[in-house]
Structure formats: C-alpha cells, structure tokens
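Pinned message: reference record for NAD(P)-binding protein
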Amino acid sequence: MAEGLGEAGGIVHCLDCAAEPPRTFEEAEARIRGRSDGDLRYHQVDVTNNEALEDCVAGIAAEKRRLDGLIAAAGIQQVTPALDFKKEDIMKMLEVNYTGVFLSARACARQMMKYKVQGGSICLIASMSGTIANRGFIAPVYNSSKAAVVQLARNLAMEWGRTNADGSGGIRVNSLSPGHIVTPMVEENFRRGEADREEWENNSMLGRLSTPEEYKAAGLFLLSRASSYMTAHDMKMDGGTTAW
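Predicted structure (tokens):
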C-alpha cells in the first residue's frame, strides 16, 4: 500500500517499531524512485507510545504543513485457546491492535485539523476476522480486536466527518477488511500447524489466498478523491470468504 501511494506521487512516511526498515521497504523505495516523484521514508516509533507517536506525526506534518492520509495497520497475533489466554497477553494484543491504531488515527487527525487539510482520509486495517470466526483458527483476541477496529472506524467517521467553523475536520474514516494474506506471520502459522493452508484456500470462493500486492489499489482508492463520498464503511476484500 505504501508503494502504491508512492507510485502515485505521494510522500509516504512508514512507521514501525523496528530500528531499521526491512529489505522489502528498501526494494519498494528503489522501485518508486525510478517511476515517480513519490518517496518512502522510514521512522522508528512504537505506536503504543502516545507521546513518541504524537511527536513523530507532528514532525512529519510540520515539514509541509499538511498531512493528507493515514493507513493504520499495526497488528500482532497469538494463537491460544480462550481458556489458556493470560491476561497480560490479552492486554498486549489489544494495546497494539486496537489502542495503537486508535492513537495513530488520533495523532494524524489532530494534524489534519491543525493545518485545516480538506479531504483528509484515514484507513484502519481490520480483517474479515472481525466479522467471522475463522474455522479451525483459534485466535479469540485477534479476531475481537479487529471487530473493535471496524467499530472504531465508524465512530471516528461520525466525529470527524463534518467541517468545523474554523475549517478543520471533514475527515473520512473507513476500515479495510482483508481476507487471508500470505505474509511471514501467516506462513509461521502454517509452519506451526496453527492453520491449515488447504482449508483456508477452500474457504475462499477464488480457491486461493491473497498476496500483499493485491491491496495496493485499495489503499490508493481509500486515501484518494476516488472515494470522496465514502466514509464509515468496512471494505471487504476477502475472496468471497465471508459471503458463503
């Protein structure tokens, strides 16, 4: 998604808790450099650290005195039966999957309002797991945290959708609910026997899992004027899994 926005000419700031960006970030950065005026930039920040996050986002916005959009995709996963989940593990997952996303949206909305950016758009990455219980996949906290993200998008859309008298506000907020994506996290689920790839493929009407690249255009759509009358919506891209 970051690469797609960069290809469209955006200056895209990627935030993560790792000290250095992954190799895939550097590869995407190189591809963008040869295609457009866009750019990818990396910042190390923990999205659960509110003060550090606010400072980071404020610094980004101050550079050009604007901030146009956000894709909030923070998420961790733990496969554990509900009866065995430790309280501290539940709190840790919710801290990242829900609170980190909430704080990111708030930090960006604050800067959009400060600089009176019109047409600001926020996309919260939820999951089809926020709507269904994935058959055979024991992840009660992850799934319920994604349901919370879907509901958060609706409520933020309601609060921030109308332009205020001082010209601030007017921010659209939507959620995107992907289906199963082949990522390192999911490949680890397969390796550990926590999920069955064949069953997941069978659950999709397309008979396959998705790849990260298939969501590139969705991110551009949700953050651009192409979706200018769309807010408080949960956009499902799940290969038909939830439509059976």
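Pinned by admin. Summary line: The CA atoms of residues 2 and 27 lie 12 Å apart.
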